């Protein structure tokens, strides 16, 4: 057990419970993505997953994991879709007499609202469910124990803010901003460097946990190699949060020092970055890597209120931890106004492909 990670990293859980600003009530954009990706994931499972190896032993158990599962219901939809596709794969080959058993592991930080998650687990489910608390930047499972790994809208979270960004004498001191959007080259390099470290750790851990022939499906915000962060819709929204915080600082609600010391640990990677990291690890082969267009939600104009509530469900926790919960309502009211004020930037932003879809196969 000496390899098991015991150091607790900082955590940024989504809003738990089932209230008006909860993640479970405000994750419909992610659910729409799950539905859009279903055909692509089905194809990956049917064409790439080595099912013969999975059922060669008896009794056969196929193990799936959803990393960064949050509180549902999207994780249940994704896992059910994956099991349906695996069963279709097995049935289509016509050489099994008995369907294997399925075990699904739901992983997120220990601070995640697992109570809400497991209260809403489908009662009629074709799998055994288990929760696995801990950071996916380290080991979570025994060696070669997983056959299908899924992670959606989770790997964009950095494990930490780089040390150089906490030093006011560093070129990476991000004064007046909270993200690498429209920031200095030093800040952008610090973000990229931390993402590289985190992705290396993620791939190394999964390489030890995923059995040969198993697949890993990853979905996260991404950006084309030649498009700046200031043209990516979600990164623009992070910038709007920073502008709203600076407005509040000028009004005296919070201090500029508080804003200067705060950075969102979120990063949108490019295909070139991902390809280089996978090649460096050498344990996986890239079966599919695409930047998908999921920006139809902006068609017909920006619904500022809808976008902001969605962001609040994911970011309220980390903002409250730094600034205090008493400023949250005002901040997101300001953000609605800021989003409306700069809606022309969202309307003209890059929408062709800002969702990274990646299928990796274990050698």
TrEMBL record:
| A UniProt-annotated Pfam family | Methyltransf_7
Mind listing the UniProt keywords for this protein, alphabetically? Magnesium, Metal-binding, Methyltransferase, Transferase
User: Molecular function terms in GO for this entry?
Assistant: metal ion binding; methyltransferase activity
Q: Which SUPFAM superfamilies match?
A: S-adenosyl-L-methionine-dependent methyltransferases (SSF53335)
Q: Name one GO biological process term.
A: methylation
Q: Does the keyword Transferase apply?
A: yes
InterPro entries, per the entry? MeTrfase_7 (IPR005299), MeTrfase_capping (IPR042086), SAM-dependent_MTases_sf (IPR029063)
Q: What is this protein called?
A: Loganic acid O-methyltransferase-like
Q: Which organism is it from?
A: Rhodamnia argentea
């Amino acid at each position: 057990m000496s390899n098991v990670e015991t150091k607790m990293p900082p955590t940024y859980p989504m809003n738990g419970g089932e209230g008006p600003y909860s993640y479970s009530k405000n994750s419909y954009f992610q659910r729409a993505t799950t539905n859009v990706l279903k055909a692509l994931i089905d194809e990956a499972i049917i064409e790439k997953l080595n099912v013969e190896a999975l059922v060669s032993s008896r009794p056969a158990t196929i193990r799936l994991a959803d990393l960064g599962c949050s509180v549902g219901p999207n994780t249940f939809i994704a896992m059910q879709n994956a099991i349906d596709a695996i069963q279709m794969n097995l049935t289509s080959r016509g050489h099994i007499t008995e369907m294997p058993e399925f075990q699904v592991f739901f992983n997120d930080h220990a601070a995640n609202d697992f109570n809400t998650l497991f209260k809403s687990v489908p009662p009629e489910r074709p799998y055994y469910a288990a929760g696995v608390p801990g950071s996916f930047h380290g080991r979570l499972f025994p060696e070669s124990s997983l056959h299908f790994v899924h992670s959606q809208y989770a790997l964009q979270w950095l494990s930490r803010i780089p040390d150089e960004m906490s030093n006011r004498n560093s070129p990476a001191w991000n004064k007046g901003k909270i993200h690498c959007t429209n920031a200095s080259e030093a800040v952008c390099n610090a973000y990229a460097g931390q993402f590289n470290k985190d992705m290396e750790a993620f791939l190394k851990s999964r390489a030890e946990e995923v059995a040969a022939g198993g697949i890993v499906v990853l979905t996260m915000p991404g950006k084309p190699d030649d498009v700046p962060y200031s043209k990516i819709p979600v990164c623009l929204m992070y910038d709007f949060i920073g502008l709203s915080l600076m407005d509040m600082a000028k009004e005296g609600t919070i201090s500029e020092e508080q804003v200067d010391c705060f950075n969102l640990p979120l990063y949108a990677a490019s295909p070139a970055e991902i390809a280089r990291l996978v090649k460096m690890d050498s344990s996986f082969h890239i079966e599919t890597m695409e930047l998908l267009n999921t920006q139809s939600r902006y068609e017909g104009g920006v619904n500022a209120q809808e976008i902001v509530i969605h962001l609040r469900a994911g970011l309220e926790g980390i903002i409250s931890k730094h600034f205090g919960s008493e400023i949250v309502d005002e901040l997101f009211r300001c953000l609605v106004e800021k989003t409306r004020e700069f809606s022309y930037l969202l309307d003209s932003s890059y929408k062709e492909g800002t969702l990274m879809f990646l299928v990796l196969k274990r050698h």
